[in-house]
Specification:
3-stranded antiparallel beta sheet; about 190 residues; 8 strands
Length: about 190
Amino acid sequence: MQLTERDQQIILAVYEYRLLSSEHIEALFFPSTSDKTHSRRTACQRRLQLLYHHGFLDRLPQPIILGKGRTPFVYALDEAGADLVADILGIDRADVGWKPKHNQLGVQFLDHSLGISDVRVVLQRLVDQDVFAKVHWVDELILKSAEMKDKVPYLMQGARPVRKHPDGYFRSRSRHDDQSSLAGKDQGLS
């Protein structure tokens, strides 16, 4: 298999987002430019199938819900993909932070993670369409890190304070905002 630049970007996106459906990947990397939706979807599916069969991406099973029809495949990083991410980013393979057990997810976590990816994909598409100049995303792992410890507030749960970490946080700047303003719009996602 000859990896393309787009293949590498897809693998990096799956690493960054953790889980992406084939619909997410299609929206991010195979954008619609005409009425050729079927050929675009077919090209996306063909590349994802190759990345899966060559061990770069893993397909995660989704439950079948009667009456909803076929659900899109969900992709996560796989062994060759983790090696490629380390190579592209110039980091040690252990620093990628991926293990095969990360792809063994319960249905609730899968749905929840795909919901977060929905938000992130929409934000990225808004950047691609020049609605936002930039979106900076901070994920849950960073929000739980030691350097963020004092920046995540405590909430009261009964009589004791409890730290609640959001699933993500983003800061955006609209293309229409005053360019001299440094203040972006801050949003949290829970």
